[in-house]
Every structure is written in C-alpha cells, then in structure tokens.
Description:
It is a single chain. This protein is mainly β. The protein is built from three helices and 32 strands. The model is unreliable at 317-330 and 348-371 (pLDDT under 50).
Amino acid sequence: MSEYTTYPVEGINHLIIDEMTRDAQVWGAVDATELQITYQPSGAERAPTFMADGDEVVLSRANVQRITVPAGVNVTVKRASGDLHIRRLAGEISVEAVHGDLRLGSLWGTTRLARVDGDLRADDVADLRLLGTCAGDLRFEGGGHLEAETIAGDVRIAGATEVRLGRVHGDLWIERVEGAFQAERVSGDARLNEIGGPAALRTLHGDLRVIAATGGLSVPQVQGDAIVQGPFSPQASYALTTNGDVSLALPADTDARLTVRANGRIRSDVPLTPTADGTPTFTATIGQGTGRVNVISGGDMRITQAGAAGPRVAADVRDSATPEDLRNLGDRIRQQVTTSLAAAGIMVEGGHGPKPARSARPGSPARSAAPPTPPQSTVEEQLRILKMVESGVITAEQAELLLKALEG
C-alpha cells in the first residue's frame, strides 16, 4: 500500500532519490512550496529517510512512486525498477539506471542519462546527453541539443538544434535539424532530411537517403545504395562513397563543381567530361561551379537535373557487353568514337568513322561491293576500346591507332 509524506523545500537545491518503483514519476511545479512524495515503505522502514547536507537532500529507504518538486531544483534518480516519467523541470537532471522505459518532457536544463533498459522518448528537452546505453529505441522531438553514445534500437529525431550520435544498431531517421549532425556508425538504413548544418555520418551499413542537407554532407562509407536530393548549398561541400548504386537529383539552380566515379554505368542529364588521370572519373561544372559535389559509386549512378533534356550514358565500365548493348553496335561505335575523337580535336574523314573504301578506278580489278562483316571478336574489341576512351584510360589518339590496327 502506498503512503504519502511531505518535506520542506526551503534551501534545497539538489534532491537525490535512491530508489523509484515501477511507473514512477518526477513532476516539477513552479509554485511548489514542499516536496510531495508518494512511496511504498521499504522493509522495516515505514517512512522515507531525508538526509540533508547543505543545499543537498538525499531521499532513501523508500520506493518512491511519485514526487513533486519545485521546477528549479536539480534532481538525481539513482535507480528506477521500471518505467520512469520526468516532466516540467528547469534544473539539471541526472538518471543513473532505468530498468524500463524512460519518458522525458518539457525539461529546460541539462539532462544526463547513464543507462536505459527500455525505450527512450524525449519531447521538448533542451539538452539531452545519453552517456551510456539505451537498449531500446530513441525518439527525440521538438528539442535542442542531443548527444547519445549507444542506441540498440532505432532512432527517430524530428526537430533539434544539434545532434551527435555514437553507435546506432537500428535504423536512423532524422529531420529538421537547425545545426550540425554527426554520427559514427549506423547498422541499419539512414534517412536525413532538412539538415541546416554540416551532416557527417562516418559508416552506414544499410541504404542512405538524403534530402535538403543544405549545410553540406560527408558520408565516406555506405554499404548499400544512396539517394541524394538537393538543394545543394554553394557554400558547402558534399562527399559520398557507396558500395551500391547512387541516385543524385540536382535542382535546376544548382551551382556546383561535380566530380563522379562509378564501377558500373553512369547515366546523366548533365554533360560530363572525363578526367585525364586514368580512372573512370568525370567532372561537370553546373552554374558557376561554386560548391563541391564528389560522389563515388561501387555500382551504377544516375544523375538527374530539373529542366535537363534527358539522360545519356556517360560511361559503362562493366566487364563485358550484354546482348542489349550489342544491338546496333556498329552504328553506335562509329557515332560514339567519332564524338570522342572530335572532342579531342581529331577529325575523322567523313565524320562517320574510318575512311570508307574508294570505288574502283577504271582498269582496276573489280572489288566486292560490300566489305566483309567483322568477326564478333573484333566487335567486342572495338567496344572495349570505346569504353577505355570514355573512361579516360586511353586517349582519343591511342584509340584511333587501335581501331586502325583492328581494321588492318
């Protein structure tokens, strides 16, 4: 059976509670003139013990169910045997261990947590610091600064001024952050939306989706696929490396220098220029090229821009051609090789590829009207030469010599 007691609050600045029961509550009240305590007697003790030391009071030898304190008092809870709810406090809050769920609401000071065995939910919390582990999910809404070391479940953040996360074993969904966002490792998928400051995620084991990271982006290791959508700030830099496919969506007013590389096919609405470093790397200047966007894909890459004419294949560095790639191959080889050579300042006679055979002069032996069809091996070799030109592995002059050698 629960019992009730009070204690004067005059001169108290810090309240320490040794033990709280399941479904316990710590409530702040602006007009409170005393501590109001509902508790369950512990062992032979029929009432809690208050030990005062200056402006600090320790409440022990009772399982506290509910306590109301002045809103400005600092509160420490050493242990809660079940769920715990803390609300409407302006002082500093410290919770050492909660063996259930923890819910925080309307806390205007700094809140420090060591261990939460269940889920953690924080609404309108000015400064939350999880220094240890949350064994469940973390949800943070409409608050300020968030710092969390380890979360075993999922993380959902909707509204914050700044966020720093250590290890997230589940999925991450974060949106509407005014300042910087930083995370060390996320084992699931991650979605970032409307991040105003620099966004940095060191390692992501799942897929990534980013929308409106206007403060810049740094994600050096993504095991899955990635979708990144603008707007992109010209004052910020964006760097992304994935093992999977990448989709990059550029607004019409993008102002950036784009550098991309892929192990698979690149299809782009933006005209790309191959670099001369021998790698399948391409660049493009969009607008004035003020910002920086660097993307590396372990798979395919698709680049779109609002208002652009449509996609084109910028490069394909796959090992072998598929049957679809071999369709109309001859025409495509002649057209693309001629374009590559023209871009390098080398004009091929007739503008359509190798010089055609001249018609026989009078008195000359008659020649066959149609040249022999090149064998399949020659066609595949021509395609590989084209891929090397487009990827920047060889120059256009070297490609012309190789093509002539094949014809000979």
